[in-house]
């Protein structure tokens, strides 16, 4: 193992002291992890905050077996040590990476295939805001949903971290995006990012608005993080041969829907969760992103939308901000 002698034995990390509100996030001293087979050790400079971290903190989204108990699914930083068999990175390389948890810390070990170069010109805080939403959107919208240029994407949660990424990627790749969001300000942000139309779901019915906008045809792909009564409404607003991709069920995991619509329109309703997938699977997404999306990042055609940055020790404030729901885009921790 190639190792930098300046790596300390202990590090500061923010842990979930017990399931609960944001204040259960507490800084503590932990052993610096050792990079395993095909892993690299990253000195973390910034870590992205995602809704699944909030769910984990509440005890509603336990880490999969073998994963770190620390929150944090994405980081940016410098490689400081290279484990057995890892060949792609060398100490000093600047990377951003999807982690198997453990991002809220000064050091994290990641599989080399789940790390990507920091796109040219991006800061560490911007780079830490990329992996989780880009991996999720790439897999669910383009691979699972099969969105193609010229098709219509209906995207719920348009101003979320996931939503702001999906709007930019789908419109850059030639789709028409219609987003839903919960305020005028959030709708404006969606349009600025490239949505053809944004619907304030608190004042307008998205089924009527999308039907009007598409001359009654509906949306070819729907990315849904809401669930609940959106399931039936998505069936209503989907186009013939439409694909509905469920990535969360924030308004309820149990729903009733008119399945005759699913049959008559030959809909596909699918879904996935990224975290429990294998390292190899995530590595394949990383390779696709590097080939097809990294050039869009390098030219700044797409970029993470930065909401607020908090110091690592104030991770609880970052979670409070996310739970208040006023954020647009990504919240990031500066690890220093
Ligand atoms: N399946 C996966 O692999 C995967 C991976 C990453 C994230 N996710 C999920 O994707 C979602 C977004 O993640 P994120 O990190 O981007 O979080 P985020 O920025 O906090 O976004 C949450 C979004 O959900 C919307 N929302 C919540 N409840 C709603 C409701 N009842 N009706 C309509 N909209 C509602 C909010 O919209 P308004 O503020 O406009 O109300 C907000 O835009 C989360 O649910 C997360 O768990 C899934």
Brief summary:
With 336 residues, this protein is of the alpha/beta class.
What does this structure look like?
With 336 residues, the protein is an alpha/beta fold. 29% of the residues lie in helices and 28% in strands. It contains 11 helices and 16 strands. It has helices at 51-57, 124-128, 131-144, 161-172, 184-192, 206-213, 230-237, 259-264, 279-292, 294-298, 315-324, and strands at 2-3, 10-16, 25-31, 39-49, 74-82, 94-98, 107-111, 115-117, 152-155, 176-181, 197-200, 219-224, 238-246, 268-271, 306-311, 330-334. The strands form 3 sheets. Strands 1, 4, 5, 6, 7, 8, 15 and 16 form an 8-stranded mixed β-sheet that branches. Helix 3 crosses helix 4, helix 3 (131-144) crosses helix 9 (279-292) and helix 6 packs parallel to helix 7 (230-237). It is globular. The two termini are 25 Å apart. The mean pLDDT is 97. The structure holds NADP nicotinamide-adenine-dinucleotide phosphate. Residues 50-52, 132, 136, 156-157, 159-163, 181-182, 186, 201, 225-226, 247-248, 250-251, 272-274, 322, 325 line the site of NADP nicotinamide-adenine-dinucleotide phosphate.
């Amino acid at each position: 193992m190639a190792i930098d002698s300046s790596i300390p034995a202990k590090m500061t990390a923010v842990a979930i002291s017990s399931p609960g509100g944001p204040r259960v996030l507490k800084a503590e001293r932990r052993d610096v992890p050792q990079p395993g087979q095909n892993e690299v050790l990253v000195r973390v400079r910034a870590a992205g905050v995602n809704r699944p971290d909030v769910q984990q903190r509440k005890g509603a989204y336990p880490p999969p077996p073998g994963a770190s108990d620390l929150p944090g699914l994405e980081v940016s930083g410098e490689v400081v040590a290279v484990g057995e068999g890892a060949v792609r990175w060398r100490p000093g390389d600047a990377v951003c990476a999807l982690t198997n948890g453990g991002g809220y810390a000064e050091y994290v070990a990641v599989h080399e295939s789940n790390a990507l170069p920091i796109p040219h010109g991006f800061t560490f805080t911007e780079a830490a805001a990329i992996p989780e939403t880009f991996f999720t959107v790439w897999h669910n919208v383009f691979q699972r949903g099969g969105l193609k240029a010229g098709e219509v994407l209906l995207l719920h949660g348009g101003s979320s971290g996931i939503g702001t990424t999906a709007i930019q990627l789908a419109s850059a790749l030639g789709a028409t995006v219609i987003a839903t969001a919960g305020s005028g300000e959030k709708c404006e942000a969606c349009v600025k990012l490239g949505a053809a139309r944004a619907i304030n779901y608190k004042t307008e019915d998205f089924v009527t608005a999308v039907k009007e906008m598409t001359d009654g045809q509906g949306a070819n792909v729907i990315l849904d993080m809401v669930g609940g009564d959106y399931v039936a409404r998505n069936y209503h607003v989907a186009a013939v041969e439409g694909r509905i991709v469920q990535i969360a069920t924030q308004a309820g995991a149990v729903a009733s829907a008119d399945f005759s619509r699913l049959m008559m329109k030959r809909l596909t309703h699918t879904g996935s969760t990224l975290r429990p997938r294998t390292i190899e699977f995530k590595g394949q997404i990383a390779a696709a992103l590097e080939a097809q999306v990294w050039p869009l990042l390098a030219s700044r055609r797409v970029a993470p939308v930065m909401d607020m940055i908090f110091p690592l020790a104030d991770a609880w404030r970052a979670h409070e901000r996310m739970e208040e729901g006023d954020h647009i885009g990504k919240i990031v921790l500066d690890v220093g």
